[in-house]
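User: Predict the structure for this protein chain, please.
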Amino acid sequence: NRHMTMEAENWYFENKNKAVVLDGAQYMSISTSDIGISMDNDYAVEMWVKAPAQTGQAQLLQAGQVALYIDENGKLQMTSNGTDIPVQDILLADNAWHHVALSIIRNGNANIYVDGINRLSVGADKVASTSGDNLFIGVRRTHQDSYPEYVFDRYLTATIDEVRIWHATMSADLIKRQRNMRLTGTEPGLGASYPFERNTLDE
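Assistant: Here is the predicted structure, written as structure tokens:
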């Protein structure tokens, strides 16, 4: 029998998928002015990541004063304005693909999902502002009074794919339903989508 039925998934046969490889010395920066949304409102960002063991702490995502990072044990952590918020025990740096999503309801909770499973739920009042000039992937940017310029550290070694930014929040059901789907770019609430299917990032 050569017939096959797959429900609730988009499948692409003979498709050449591409992704961004961060080598521990590079990072991605997305201008929030290009997204056209306020990051102090309801907000969500999601991505696929494949990370091997890191040499120390490594930043996955930084939006304003909120960040997700991989600790020395390869586990996902969250920090808000420099204060760690414990995330349910989950190994991220295991050289396997994982889907990570951060969803913030400003009048409700902030949630972190890994592979469609809720790993953190905390009151949004405990989460600092995500507003900033850029959203960073693969690096931490800080500013110290003794330095005239920004300092970059916590470089990530990983492969990144399908970065999506929403001016809306995402439920576990929505994340599970859409994380393996290729978007059209016209989905309600979608602020920006970076599938990285071109050869260069500036095309």
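Confidence is low (pLDDT under 50) at residues 1-6.
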